[in-house]
Amino acid sequence: LASSKEKKKNWIKLIYSTSLSPEEIVYGKKEEDEDQNGNDDDDFFQVKPKAVEDTEALDAGKEAIHPETLKKWEDEDMLESIRHLFITGGDGP
Amino acid sequence: MAQPSSLIHFSGHQHLRSRLVLSILSGKHVRIDKIRSEDKNPGLRDYEINLLRLLEKFTNGTIIEISVTGTAILLKPGVILGGTLQHDCSLSRAIGYFLEPIIMLAPFAKKPTSITLKGITTDEHDLSADILRTVTLPHLQLFGISQGLELRIKRRGAAPGGGGEVQFLCPIVKQVKTINFVDPGKIKRIRGVAHAVRVNPQFSNRMIEAARSILNRYIPDIYLYSDVYKGEESGKSPGYALTLLAESTTSAIYCSEAISEPGVAPEDIGLKATRALLAEIEKGGCVDQKHQTLILLMMVLGSEDVGRCRMGEPTSKTIQFLRDIRTFFATSFKIVPADPSDPSCTQLTYSCYGTGYVNANRTLA
Predict the structure, then answer these.
(1) Number of inter-chain CB pairs under 8 A, A vs B
(2) Closest partner residue to A59 among B16, B131, B290, by Cβ?
(3) How many angstroms separate the CA of residue B14 from the nearest CA in chain A?
(4) Which of A20, B48, B126, B341 has the CA that lies 20 to 30 A from B62?
(5) What is the pLDDT of residues B164-221, one digit of tens each?
(6) Tens of pLDDT along A43-61?
(7) Nearest CA of chain B to the CA of A38: how many Å?
(8) Gap from B341 CA to chain A (nearest CA, Å)
């Protein structure tokens, strides 16, 4: 049980006391970034990691629907698994 | 107490809308620089300029300075005016892009708002006029903003031609109510609007049939409406879409939407919207992801009491919004698991102490 507790994100801390970007918080920080910095040791010049900002990223109200995430809803068991969230669905699983 | 002239500084083009709204509500000046400064086509986009013009019209005494290169802006907010207005929205974005900030500001205006916006009513990026009407406005009612709150879809307009027209009516309030919304309840009904403009009107029915093939198993109370717009009212470009919403016994609303794509059958659009709705239902909570920021903003502006709301995990947009709220209003949220006894539950309870924001613009009759 202790491990599952550790896995849970401490949202207050992540949001208010870290400098992680919102995307890093949501999707988890990528380990690769750290590795790259390590490899650069023997270079005289270090390329300053530039904040990658998608200039075309839209300030959108809806998030795009990814077809892959909807795939699971083709499955009959998956459809049944949320029946308890409806008034007709009884008390739950 | 912060000085009224205190200047808040941001970089980058992202989260522009929420920052402008927070600046206008808090009265704090804001400077945003490095707007796409590294891009081949630097500076503000046409729709962002269009939004700034709209906000300028919607307020009185707002000073907006844009640098020569368009990569920096300075906003000195004035008074939120409201009243009767007309605005032609840029056709690069749907009306939802422009209306969302207006919805956040209108309750705190000097006069009740009646604004007519022209442009694209439904596209794939922004909340469509249907979602705004059937989902966003009921969320405002939670905070005591209800009398005379209305969105009329007069004409529909699909991208790229647009030609749509909506009218948004919003009353003014002195203060918003504190909410305590922690019981998601169970879903009791499903509603939907299908529309098809400048294409075969049967497309609506085909989307509805497809949606029903999945939804009929859950509950009997399903009403999917085929909204017909003809002639001039159907805008300049062809398109169709299905908007679905599920309402719970405690009035929590989940919504989804799918719009026409070239080469995809209406049935598949119907199924896409339906499955997206099921995904929202599975995430649970009292407020769906698209409306997290609106709810959090109203909670911060609430009376000086603790407001609570149960929602899913924050999106990246919400995370930045929470940080920006702290910058402008010095209020931070407490975010804890909604159900600590259930380790698989990802829902969270957001709570904060309202700032007791009072609408000082309101005319005293």
Answers:
(1) 118
(2) B16
(3) 6
(4) B126
(5) 999 999 999 999 999 999 999 999 999 999 999 999 999 999 999 999 999 999 999 9
(6) 666 666 555 556 667 788 8
(7) 27
(8) 11
Q: Does residue A16 belong to any structural domain of this protein?
A: yes
| Cβ of residue A47 closer than 8 Å to a chain B Cβ | no
Are B38 and A53 an interchain contact pair (Cβ–Cβ within 8 Å)?
Answer: yes
Q: What is the pLDDT of residue B208?
A: 97
With contacts defined as CB-CB under 8 Å, which chain A residues touch B343? 1, 4-5, 8
pLDDT at A41: 54
Q: B316 vs A23: CB contact, 8 Å cut-off?
A: yes
Q: Does any CB of chain B come closer than 8 Å to the CB of residue A49? A: no
Instruction: Find the domain containing A73 and state its range.
Output: 2-43+66-89
The answer as to whether A39 is a domain residue is yes
**What ipTM is given for this predicted complex?**
0.82
Closest Cβ–Cβ partner in A16, A22, A62 for B320: A22
**From A23-27, B233-237, B312-316, the region with the lowest mean pLDDT:** A23-27
Question: How many domains does chain A fold into?
Answer: 1
Structure confidence at residue A91 (pLDDT):
64
pLDDT the model gives residue A44: 67
Of the candidates A23, A61, A70, the beta carbon closest to that of B97 is on A61
Quick one: closest CA in B to A89, which residue?
B218
In a domain, A10, yes or no: yes
For residues B110-129, average pLDDT = 95
Whether residue B281 and residue A89 make contact (CB cut-off 8 A), yes or no, is no
Bridge-based pairing state of the strands B59-60 and B79-80: antiparallel
Asked whether residue A61 is domain-assigned, the answer is no
